[in-house]
Write a structure and sequence with these properties.
By secondary structure, the protein is α/β, with parallel strands linked by helices. The protein has 13 helices and eight strands. Strands 1-2-3-4-5-6-7-8 form an eight-stranded parallel barrel, surrounded by six helices. Helix 5 runs parallel beside helix 6 and helix 8 packs parallel to helix 9. It starts with a helix and ends with a helix.
């Protein structure tokens, strides 16, 4: 797998102009982008379609959790845009994940990625909604459910990558948000994710893809940082 496409740049901005500025600054170094609900709602689907048309990988982080028919329709819409990944909540259950996988089958490059436990959640947050399991218990449980439903991969925190790789075997994609550049690990920046890690550690633990957002896009020279990170991942 091309190292540059294993690094997904999160376009965590609220306007198309801001997103375009990030893409322009990264240039050829940026080969994969995540578009979440905020940007998609603010800017519409045109940016995703344009990036896909330029050969970029587009990860639509929609976190779908709806009735099967609606989820299938959203997945087909993602496929028509040229997306390469789309997320569905594993907590939505088997029927909904299976509907997503069936809808994606018409688009050979589209992969359905199941969200296990949102990376901002802690054990206490799960308890608040009546889930007695810890995140360490709930994540592999949902990941196995997603695998049985035919999903192509899962989203989980970097700390869970090694455990998930052991549970799921070599074929499943593991996409890890909450990744921080090592300077941040020294306390120079904060994160919204409760279970973060650095890029190389996440990949060595078993992740296939890492998602990096503001820590990269707000750096003085994001293209150089991304190119250096891609090179490091090939070593």
């Amino acid at each position: 797998m091309d190292a540059a496409r294993r690094i997904i740049v999160a376009l965590d901005v609220d306007t198309v102009d801001a997103a375009e500025a990030v893409v322009a600054r990264l240039g050829d170094a940026g080969q994969a982008y995540k578009i979440g609900l905020e940007l998609l709602t603010a800017a519409g689907p045109a940016l995703a379609a344009r990036l896909a048309g330029e050969g970029k990988d587009v990860f639509l982080d929609l976190k779908l959790f709806e009735i099967p028919t609606s989820v299938a329709g959203a997945v087909r819409a993602a496929g028509r845009l040229g997306a390469t990944m789309v997320t569905v909540h594993a907590m939505a259950g088997t029927r909904i994940m299976e509907a997503a996988v069936r809808a994606a089958a018409d688009f050979p490059r589209l992969r359905v990625i199941a969200l296990t436990v949102v990376t901002s959640l802690t054990d206490a947050d799960l308890a608040d909604v009546g889930v007695r399991a810890t995140t360490a218990e709930q994540v592999p449980r949902l990941a196995r459910l997603a695998q049985r439903a035919g999903c192509h991969g899962v989203v989980a925190s970097p700390q869970e990558a090694a455990t998930l790789r052991a549970h799921l075997g070599p074929g499943m994609l593991i996409v890890t948000p909450g990744v921080r550049l090592r300077a941040e690990l020294a306390g120079q920046a904060s994160t919204e994710h409760a279970r973060p890690a650095d890029p190389v550690a996440a990949l060595r633990a078993g992740a296939t893809h890492i998602v990096i957002g503001r820590s990269l896009t707000r750096s003085p020279d994001p293209a150089a940082v991304l190119a250096a990170l891609s090179e490091e991942l090939t070593l």
